[in-house]
Amino acid sequence: MGFHLPFFLCLEDFQMVAEAEDSEDESYAIDCPVLVTERLVMRAPHEGDVAQLVELADNRHVAEMLARMPHPYGEAEARSFLAMTKSRRAGIAYA
User: Fold this and answer.
1) Residue 93: inside a domain, yes or no?
2) pLDDT for residue 63 is more than 80
3) How many domains does the chain have?
4) Could you point out which of 13, 17, 51, 60 has its C-alpha 20 to 30 Å from the C-alpha of 31?
């Protein structure tokens, strides 16, 4: 069972930002490096990921299980996702 924390955590340019939901002008920058394991590298998405985002996200079965995943998922949706992650209102986003 989970619970909703009263803040958003956002990743932009390798910084994590915690921001209160009800206060747009308060934010707290926290260092957040790229996460690297033997088999995985987690980093913020960028423009070079558009083609792979489209290829991997354009899946009807995945979209059926997610409330906010559009289908079909094309380049416009991928670019919209990137813009949302850069806006600091998207929560933590990794590519």
Assistant:
1) no
2) yes
3) 1
4) 51
